[in-house]
Structure prediction request, 427 residues.
Amino acid sequence: MLDLAFVRDNIELVERKLAERGSALRLDRFREVDSSRRRLLTEVELLKSQRNKAGDQIGALKKSGGDASAIIAEMGGISDRIKLLDDRVKQVDEELREILTTYPNVPHETVPVGRSAADNVEVRRWGTPREFTFKPKAHWELGEQLGILDMERGAKIAGARFGVYWDGGARLERALGNFFLDTLTREHGYREVLPPAIVNSASLFGTGQLPKFAEDLFKLEGSDYWLIPTAEVPVTNLYSGETLDAADLPINLTAYTPCFRSEAGTYGKDMKGVFRNHQFQKVEMVKFAHPDHSYEELERLTGNAEALLQKLGLPYRVMALCTGDMGFGSAKTYDIEVWLPGLNEYREISSCTNFESFQSRRAGIRFRTGSKGKSELVHTLNGSGLATGRSWIAVVENYQQADGSIEIPEALRPYFGGTDRIPALKK
Prediction:
């Protein structure tokens, strides 16, 4: 959520920045409500000044033995009016807060201006896509042929956009999650946490999913519980309403959880295989950083995700998202796109974002330097490190062999007991 004072003092800048995001939002309602608030406050201050002066008069009259009853009666009416106006100011403040919850974050000055994904800017790429001596297959073909991915049974027991992993397919998913967690904790200083996969509405409000994106979520009927769309939600809210010690920043956390998304508005897109399912697993990285260093931490966060792909030997590119393609709460985002031979294109496997104080203002997460220092809003960041389902796709497609088997990347072999491949089925 944007800062009220910032919007009030920079309303034209905010309006221009939101327009750069492609937002049709106008700040006219904000102007109207804020102007009403100023009028109310002016009247309240005037009435309080009158009441203070009358109080002096009443004191003087009582001291001299005069009759102050008329002034006291008049002030009773003014006090009632002040209470009424104070209540109205509280209502207007809440209305302003509700208006602010509908505004996306202001893009950082380094974010390229653009209207869609076509305007995203490539920052760098790593690795060279493999040249196959045969026509590479897509993961859903390979999974079916190897008997390690079963979309038909997933649809039978749950519906469309669900899959079942068997044997080496299930082990590969598990190996990827363990490999990501081990690398992030042992080599990059992340602390592992296992949070609930169910959260309340307050948590989803804190990270910005509610109220705007309720249709993208799964809600448990008759309760205030929701299935998490990503571990970002519970992990970020671990510190909601708390004040952290500046000496502890940055705090780096990682979690491996199931994720649930309704994928509203995406039907007909990526329907084959497990690229865009209702349920998937993901390792998430979350950072709580000092505002002076959060963009350095964004580069580190992105680099940590890249390091995982490099260890797996998977070619990728890093894209700086333009203003029109960023998420609601993002101040700046890098997407990491992995090469998928089955589709013959790069597709997103990690999104690394600096939210600045957008989430911490909603969730009430602050930090303080020393016991007497002034508290400030912390900056929050997160990124996939990585989505295991999409990493599964990338490994299967990039490491497929002419005989139909899947070579296991060297980095994952310790999680397979040293086995170097998922064998082709015997004919």
Observations:
- Residues 117-422 form a domain with the BirA Bifunctional Protein; domain 2 fold (CATH 3.30.930.10).
- The longest strand covers residues 345-356.
- The chain has a mean pLDDT of 93.
- The chain has two domains: 4-100, 117-422.
